[in-house]
Amino acid sequence: QGDGTTGAVWECPVFQPVRSHPQRPKTPGPDPHMLVVCPDHSHYTPVYFLGNYDPKAKRFYMSTASGPYPLDLGGGPQGCTFYAPNVLTNDPHGRLVMWGWCQESGRPGKTKAYNYGSCLSLPRLIWRHPHVPGMLWQEPLPSLNRLRFST
């Protein structure tokens, strides 16, 4: 039973284990899981919870999970611009790679009538924050730097 701060319906759920930084040794024990949901109102950003999952009971313990925290701090006057995230789970380097749908806002001219324009975000790495328990850390996928070149 929610309190209404995260909407009435949760769309596009993502449920994945999240490890510490991929270049650091794995911590002992099971990795906590993140549950990412998109609240139904467009002014809400996707939120995540980070907590324990019992694979035998097939249960995520919301009562002890941290969150909800905003997954993306973008947005603006029109609300959320990052929506419906998804993850790549078979990265050869063991990383959790996430991308999402970016909603456009404020299109000029004739395109203003067509409010369904959008694109995919740049991929980002997700892992547990190194210094703040219960929080996630995000950064652009490092290989994106190869797309840059000097003129």
Automatic annotation (TrEMBL):
<comment type="similarity">
    <text>Belongs to the glycosyl hydrolase 32 family.</text>
</comment>
<feature type="domain" description="Glycosyl hydrolase family 32 N-terminal">
    <location>
        <begin position="5"/>
        <end position="138"/>
    </location>
</feature>
<dbReference type="InterPro" id="IPR050551">
    <property type="entry name" value="Fructan_Metab_Enzymes"/>
</dbReference>
<dbReference type="InterPro" id="IPR013148">
    <property type="entry name" value="Glyco_hydro_32_N"/>
</dbReference>
<keyword id="KW-0378">Hydrolase</keyword>
<keyword id="KW-0326">Glycosidase</keyword>
<dbReference type="InterPro" id="IPR023296">
    <property type="entry name" value="Glyco_hydro_beta-prop_sf"/>
</dbReference>
<dbReference type="Pfam" id="PF00251">
    <property type="entry name" value="Glyco_hydro_32N"/>
</dbReference>
<protein>
    <recommendedName>
        <fullName>Glycosyl hydrolase family 32 N-terminal domain-containing protein</fullName>
    </recommendedName>
</protein>
<dbReference type="GO" id="GO:0016798">
    <property type="term" value="F:hydrolase activity, acting on glycosyl bonds"/>
</dbReference>
